[in-house]
# Entry
Amino acid sequence: MPDKPRILIVDDDPIVAESLAEFLAREGYVTTTAGDGNEAMDLIGSTADTEGDTAGRSQAAPYAVVITDMNMPRSDGIELLKRLRKQSPSVVPIMITGFGKIESAVEAVKLGAADYLTKPVVDDELRIAVNKALNQHTLLHENQTLKAQLSERFGMGNIIGSDYRMQKVYDLVDAVAESKTTVLIGGGSGTGKSMVARAIHANSPRQSAPFITFSCGAIPETLLESELFGHVKGAFTGADHDKPGKCLAADGGTLFIDEINSATPSLQLKLLRVLQEKQFEPVGSTQTTTVDVRFILATNQPLEQLVRGGTFREDLYYRINVVHIQMPNLTDRVGDIPALANHFVEKYCKEAGKTITGIDEQAMNALQSYDWPGNVRELENAIERAVVLSRQPIISLDQLPETIQRFVRGETGHALSLSPDQSFAPSGGVHVPALEGGWHPTPLVDALVEPEKQIILAALEANDWNRQITASQLDINRTTLYKKIKQFGLDQAG
Ligand SMILES: Nc1ncnc2c1ncn2[C@@H]1O[C@H](COP(=O)(O)OP(=O)(O)OP(=O)(O)O)[C@@H](O)[C@H]1O
Ligand SMILES: [Mg+2]
# Structure
């Protein structure tokens, strides 16, 4: 913790902001002022939430407390609170409201404000509120430090992310590591499933025993059984000596069964028995082998769906779905992208012997807007490439892969497919088909489809198809925006 806590004061009236800043400076704090929520977030972003930044970059000390006015022209106090909660949860806000605005005060407290004060602000009240907020900040900070130490101790130091979905992953890993419980890790490609499987093993009492990976999708059916259970000499043509399989290799340790969703029916049956009884027979042998193995499984498709579709055994599903860890998509934790990107810059600079100090704003915005079908792996590859290509100390947009550049320019598969008679006038009001030629009885949900589509389209166009900005202007999350883009066919290639 810095000696003098830093406080950011946000008010569109510079006189109010300055007078609060002066008072707090006299009280011994380091103060900065901002004119609205956007400016405040920029300032907070530039000091980065170093506590959450596991890459451990050294930057200016982060703000401990933000005192914000409620009504501001561009980005108001409530908006700022929402963004703080999402992006910098350890910065504790205090809200200043106009007299008698009790509803907004309640909302502010719900959004994590330590306190709210009414204008004109009384010195004593401000003193008390700041003390309270600082105590809260210290607790949050200690909590994060403890978590960081814990993850260091438990070998999770390389897993980057402070989004609450990742905190949930860390908590689950902590909770299950000690035991022998079977764990199922779900998530899209490149979301970190294998990494988490390793972390569980590394945190378990089995850490010094082997961690063996068996991938159900990678091996031809005929070799699967031998690969998993081993075989004895003479079991089949070419089996000229005994060969232990992965189950035996993992004895005492962990067997990570990857891509369980692509296991064939016969493999599913075999796995069911090993999982249940920890017993198997090597191919060509009648002798049963018993092992002490901890199973971790990964799937990149929801198994419930496969069970419903009849391609995955229900009994196996129940056997493996004891503890389920779901890895979030990268686009669901956009706030983690800067920390991840910086982490990879550091990693690949070390490898390439280069000195790159960071990523410029335009490139970082692009990274935060792109839709990352390959999740963290794709981000890692993009940064590795940029580090190799970069001749400057800062990575810029033109060093990012062309797909990302095209995406942020709105060129990737998002050419509009409006037919010629579909007139579209962003500034000319919204066209409501259900009202054409008077009212025809129509369910409201159906009547709202076209206007909604046009509003989204107008917003996307106005923002050069930047989804991040569009979602934030529409006050919906990015996933919802993506779903709507898909639903309305706005992403169809022209
Ligand atoms: N939270 C994270 N912090 C740092 N690096 C990460 C994180 N998540 C993933 N990575 C990195 O991204 C790459 C992909 O991760 P990983 O192989 O664990 O994903 P996966 O979900 O197992 O992918 P697949 O579905 O292809 O098996 C790895 O290089 C990993 O180190
Ligand atoms: Mg994997």
Residues 158-161, 187, 189-195, 300, 340, 376-377, 380 surround adenosine-5'-triphosphate (ligand 1) (CB under 6 Å). The chain is about 45% helix and 10% strand. The two ends are 54 Å apart (CA to CA). Residues 123-153 form the longest helix (31 residues).
